[in-house]
Design brief:
Blueprint (H helix, E strand, L loop, with lengths): L4 H10 L7 E4 L5 H12 L4 E5 L10 E2 L7 E4 L5 H8 L3 E3 L8 E2 L3 E5 L10 E10 L4 E7 L6 H7 L4 E6 L7 H10 L4 H20 L2 E11 L5 E3 L3 E4 L8 H4 L9 H8 L3 E4 L4 E5 L2 H13 L6 E4 L6 H12 L6 E8 L4 H15 L6 E7 L2 H9 L5 E4 L2 H12 L1
Parallel strand pairs: 15-17, 17-18, 18-19
Antiparallel strand pairs: 1-7, 2-4, 2-7, 3-5, 5-6, 8-9, 8-11, 9-10, 11-12, 11-13, 14-16
Helix pairs in contact: 5-6, 9-13, 10-11, 11-12
Amino acid sequence: MNLHEYQGKSILESYGVAIQRGVVVDNVEEAVAKAKELSASTGTEWFVVKAQIHAGGRGKGTVEETGSHGVVLAKGIDKVEETVKGILGGHLETAQTNGVGKKVNKVLIAEDVYYPGESEPSEFYMSVLLDRANERNAIIYSTEGGMDIEAVAENTPHLIFKEEIDPRVGLQGFQARKIAFNLGLSGQAFKEMTKFVFSLYAAYEGADSSMFEINPVLKTSDNKIIAVDAKVTLDDNALYRHKAYAAMRDKTEEDPMEVEADEAGLNYVNLDGNVGCMVNGAGLAMATMDIIKLSGGNPANFLDVGGTADAERVEKAFRLILQDKNVEAILVNIFGGIVRCDRVAQGIVDAYKNMGEIPVPIIVRLQGTNAVEAKALIDASGLNVHSAVLLQEAADLVKSVLS
């Protein structure tokens, strides 16, 4: 589950990570009042107004309706209202929104932390994530903060460092100090960075997250180390342990079809192909998408109906798939282990009749318990449903109906 910046920062702060302070607003009317409260509590005179969407590159992104960027510096309280108006309610398009602007429902008004002092501010990059290949958590960091980290990795890979954490002992003091040293810090900033690294790693582990990315981590002009941004992904499977975090879910930022599927208890991921998939089991779903590709089609979705493919569940799955206007055929590939194939077949027939005429051909491949009876049910239904026994046979049928 992805979080907004302000939500990620609230988790960081609860673990002792120093953050750029701010207030969230969802309407222009309260923006100035909240900015004044922020000024009174922090002493800031300039304000950074940040669009809150689940996408990176907001600073370079553009609001379609106004031409404003997604992150704008308001140089004074008198500029806050105008700046918020240019972002809030508009559609922000960034390099990560796939050419479609995402509506900005909230903005974060944050304090200016780039104030003058005894030294120049410095920006760093830091993230904590799981290195699956090595089965360890890893801290990725760089001196090139505030930039597109993918571009840094491609153009100057020697400026990206990695520290692996042994799960048996956790993050060690020498590792935190090594990170601070590689970032070129000394004195008070060095001490602040080691503390920052420990607190960040504690937040990553304590929140059961998949990723904490801070870009940039800022060394202020008075040698404080703070998180200016926060991109956080939590492990969905652990949310039952974190009710407060689960409540942070923003469904407006997610694909509506995927939200609908989740509420129906279906595992669904929308893709950009032309063949809908209905499968039970993630591994079988991946194999099904492969065979569709090999047959000349492209999968339109990943849909795992689970072990209870009854008529109601199958109907919900069909309705989801058919919301995608690019779907030209549907391949149902069910292995009858927990659920009997004849029951699935009857569910398909019943769902088809309940929905009326389905405008695209359906290929059904059922294997496992009572597969023969299931094929007989499909063949005798008189519906626009093609039955298959072998996976290759199903693929050939997909190719046939698409040609």
